[in-house]
Every structure is written in structure tokens, then in C-alpha cells.
Design a protein that fits this description.
This protein is of the alpha+beta class. It is about 20% helix and about 40% strand. The chain has a six-stranded antiparallel beta sheet with strand order 1-2-4-5-6-3. A hairpin with a 3-residue loop joins strand 4 and strand 5.
């Protein structure tokens, strides 16, 4: 189980996010390793900008999604994370029809703040985006 304090089967991720932005964009959790997670996202009409390449905002949604999932899974039940800051450097274009894969690893898992690094690669393995997500740890409230 490594750094994870909770489990999330891939099916659970899909069910939980089916009607939310990650679900609408086709983001899938595909692997949960000892200290990392991988997610994929297709690049189709939903994800491109007018020049036919992946919209940078879609990359940020993928990064924030996988980082937030990791942040939550690294906490005990009853706790959650909320985003404080996300940044992204877009390094190479991704064409419509490709699929991108995000690899998320922790830089800091603290009591009150977490920092996650997310590398997004296109189908040929080229790094297309590097992102960092900072989250605040909060206790869940009833209701």
C-alpha cells in the first residue's frame, strides 16, 4: 500500500467522477503504485483548442484531478484535500487522436499541506506538460 491510507479501485474512480469534469473529459485512473498514480485522458474534440492540439486547460484538469485523488488517498478517512495552487508548463503539443498519461508523485505529504508533481506524456512518451499541485488538508464536515 506504500504511502496510501485508502484504496480506490479504478472502477470506483470512474463511478465517482462519471458526471463531473474528469468523467466528462474521459480521465481514467489506471494504476496506483507504492508511491505514485497514473491516469490517462484521450485527446478528442472535447480537449482541443482551435489549432487542433490539446488545450492547456485540459492538461491542468488532468493534473489537478490525479493530484487531488492522490492527496485524498494519502489521508486517513475523514480528511480531504482542496487545491491551493496549480501550475503547468506546456512543453510539446499533443495532436487530436492521441492519448496522454499523467504520472503523479508526492514532493511533500504534510499534516496541513501537500505538494504533488505531475508529468504528462503523449503516446510517443514525450513529456508534454509538467505540473505541480499544492493542496491544503481539511477535515471533512458532515453534510
Amino acid at each position: 500500500m506504500g504511502i496510501w491510507k485508502r484504496a480506490m479501485p479504478a472502477e470506483s474512480f470512474g463511478e465517482r467522477h462519471a458526471a463531473t469534469l474528469p468523467g466528462l473529459l474521459g480521465i481514467r485512473l489506471v494504476e496506483l503504485g507504492e508511491d505514485y498514480a497514473r491516469a490517462t485522458m484521450p485527446v478528442d474534440e472535447r480537449h482541443i483548442q482551435p489549432f487542433g492540439i490539446l488545450h492547456g486547460g485540459a492538461s491542468v484538469v488532468l493534473a489537478e484531478t490525479i493530484g487531488s485523488v492522490c492527496g485524498t488517498l494519502a489521508l486517513d478517512e475523514g480528511w480531504m484535500v482542496v487545491g491551493l495552487e496549480v501550475n503547468a508548463n506546456h512543453l510539446a503539443p499533443v495532436q487530436k487522436g492521441d492519448t496522454v498519461e499523467a504520472l503523479c508523485r508526492p514532493l511533500q505529504i504534510g499534516r496541513t499541506v501537500q505538494v504533488w508533481q505531475i508529468e504528462i506524456r503523449r503516446g510517443d512518451g514525450r513529456l508534454t506538460c509538467i505540473s505541480r499541485l499544492t493542496t491544503a488538508v481539511r477535515e471533512m464536515r458532515a453534510g
